[in-house]
Write a structure and sequence with these properties.
Elements (H helix, E strand, L loop, with lengths): L6 H24 L8 H13 L3 H24 L7 H21 L4 H15 L4 E2 L2 E2 L7 H20 L9 H26 L4 H24 L13
Antiparallel strand pairs: 1-2
């Protein structure tokens, strides 16, 4: 879906991705190598823990996977009838979960339950971009994004070599590169913040998500107030 987003849309989605990277960076250091948004990593850890006799490690990894899925389920149910305002609702839900976890962290009682709230918030925010009832842009996992980056970069190279592609399409890989760069920079910022602020750094992610949700709500309201396009031109998918 990134190819259907303008640069403004890429920036907006990239900011959410950066916040997911931030939370993942904080969680990775605090939890000793577990992930809060990258569930493929937790799935691998659960298998390794199970076969090496680490029942606690297996339970923790699977708990995060289950919480992530639970966040997706909750966001899907809450927004089933909210076509226009789906994105801000989902982001406010994610922000509320982040605020709760940040509060627990500030009280020194984050624990496993609080970490599961963080994983749920990361699952929920992935429902922000959907099409025909399916998630169309993964915000907290980058494997598919990197595959798309490689595909479009390969296509651009072939186009340059053969002279068959001289249009804007040859730069589509840049959009995927931006999304990957944002989650990477976000995780870097999360680790840096945790090393200096501890769990109080979660307030940065919580505040950022609520702010971005408010911007999404304002955007949806402006769109709703615009008159119907008399020429039937399809507006940009955000």
């Amino acid at each position: 879906m990134a190819r259907n987003l303008g640069w403004r849309g890429i920036f907006f989605a990239g900011a959410i991705t950066a916040m997911a990277g931030f939370v993942d960076g904080v969680g990775f250091i605090h939890l000793g190598g577990y992930f809060l948004s990258f569930m493929s990593g937790n799935s691998t850890r659960s298998s390794a823990a199970l076969l090496t006799g680490d029942a606690g490690g297996w339970a923790m990894a699977m708990g995060f996977v289950g919480s992530f899925v639970g966040g997706v389920v909750l966001a899907t149910v809450l927004t089933a009838r909210a076509a226009r305002y789906r994105r801000p609702i989902v982001m406010y839900l994610s922000g509320a979960l982040l605020v709760t976890a940040a509060l627990l962290g500030s009280l020194g009682t984050l624990g496993f339950g609080g970490a599961c709230l963080l994983a749920a918030s990361m699952g929920a925010v992935n429902v922000s971009y959907t099409r025909s009832g399916e998630v169309s842009l993964g915000l907290t996992y980058m494997t598919g994004t990197l595959v798309k980056l490689g595909q479009h970069l390969g296509g651009a190279i072939l186009g340059l070599l053969t002279g068959s592609d001289r249009g804007a399409g040859r730069l589509l890989w840049v959009r995927y590169a931006v999304l990957w760069a944002m989650i990477t920079l976000g995780s870097l910022a999360g680790v840096f913040a945790y090393l200096h602020l501890g769990l109080s750094s979660l307030w940065i992610a919580a505040g950022g998500m609520l702010l971005w949700a408010t911007l999404a709500l304002a955007s949806e309201r402006r769109t709703a107030q615009q008159p119907e396009n008399p020429f039937g031109v399809r507006r940009e998918i955000r």
